[in-house]
Design brief:
33% of the residues lie in helices and 23% in strands. It has 306 residues and is α+β, with helices and mostly antiparallel strands. The strands form 4 sheets. Strands 8, 9, 12, 13, 14, 15 and 16 form a 7-stranded antiparallel beta sheet that branches. Strands 1-2-3-7-6 form a 5-stranded antiparallel beta sheet. A two-stranded antiparallel sheet has the order 4-5. Strand 10 and strand 11 form a beta hairpin. The longest helix is centred in the middle third of the chain and has 24 residues, at 179-202.
Length: 306
């Protein structure tokens, strides 16, 4: 399968993110192409991770199809053959788009990340450890790192063009969007997370937290958009190795982060661009971690043509 650092399709480019290019397929539809680019500590590495883009796309497709009866989404298909039938001019780019491309409806994105935390980790744990709060709002006393939050906590965040998104109180979302839409977003986020957490548990995975994006279509309907419960948008922990009170191993780019942290600890990298050159063993280990996440969640290996 082609390792893709950047797609170049003969379509108008709507936007380019750290991982994806989004193209205007026609007036009503977009094509989302997930490259194999990888970022860590908000820096995009020079080297790509083989099959990463296909894993992100196909996991999202798995969830969109599984959750479709419960909440509308922008998803139409991630099947390459179907995309090429609808847009035959892309046939010369088959290798570029195979397995890593989704056809979706256009929406106007809601300007907030909808984060649901079922366990306290990452930036939430850092703030709680320092102040006992999350986005300035108090959490119960006595929590430990990676401890379960029951019930889960809805923790919206702003969408930042550069750097980390910023956690904000739910009241900030209400003030910006109005109470009806803010409550719909919170309810939908809890529903999707609950369904995802339930399925993942049967596959030996804890979804510790995840972030969703929503958009409003041309008819005013709220839809789940972007990617859904992938290793890039969620923390996946192996349930059989879960121990609260410490950080957890995860099914994502942990091998890459661990290697970079070791470089920072020894003064061989200052944590800023340009990033260091990734050794082949780190690239391979990171690729295997993504593929294992796909296999565990879906129950089968990622097809060679995806």
């Amino acid at each position: 399968m082609t390792v893709l650092t950047e797609s170049r399709l003969p379509l108008p480019l709507l936007r380019k993110g750290k991982v994806r290019e989004v193209y205007e397929a026609d007036r009503d539809h977009l094509l989302m192409v997930a490259s194999d680019r990888v970022s860590a500590f908000d820096i995009v590495m020079r080297e790509a991770i083989p099959r990463k883009g296909a894993v992100l796309t196909q996991i999202s497709a798995f969830w969109f199809e599984r959750l479709g009866a419960g909440i509308p989404s922008h998803f139409l298909t991630a099947r390459t053959g179907e995309i090429l039938r609808r847009f035959p001019a892309l046939e010369p780019h088959r290798a570029e788009i195979t397995g890593r491309t989704m056809l979706v409806r256009r929406t106007t994105p809601v300007p907030f990340e909808c984060v649901v935390r079922g366990y306290i980790s990452g930036s939430a744990w850092k703030e709680y450890k320092e102040r006992g709060t999350l986005a300035g709002e108090p959490l119960p006393a006595g929590l430990v790192e990676s401890g379960q939050l029951e019930p889960p906590v809805f923790s919206p965040a702003t969408k930042e063009e550069a750097g980390h998104d910023i956690n904000v109180p739910f009241d900030a979302m209400v003030a910006a969007l109005g109470a009806p839409l803010a409550h719909r977003l919170r309810d939908a986020s809890f529903a999707v997370y609950g369904a995802g957490r339930e399925h993942a548990a049967t596959r030996g995975i804890i979804i510790a937290d995840t972030k969703f994006e929503f958009g409003v279509d041309a008819h005013g309907e709220l839809r789940l958009i972007d990617e859904v419960m992938t290793p890039d948008s969620s923390r996946f922990w192996p349930a059989d190795d879960y121990h609260p009170g410490r950080s957890q191993p995860s099914f994502d780019k942990q091998p890459l982060r661990d290697w970079l942290l070791a470089l920072k600890a020894t003064g061989k990298w200052n944590g800023e661009a340009p990033p260091p050159t990734l050794p082949p063993e780190v690239i391979a280990a990171t690729s295997r971690r993504y593929l294992e996440a796909f296999r565990r969640l879906t129950g089968f290996d990622l097809p060679e043509d995806a």
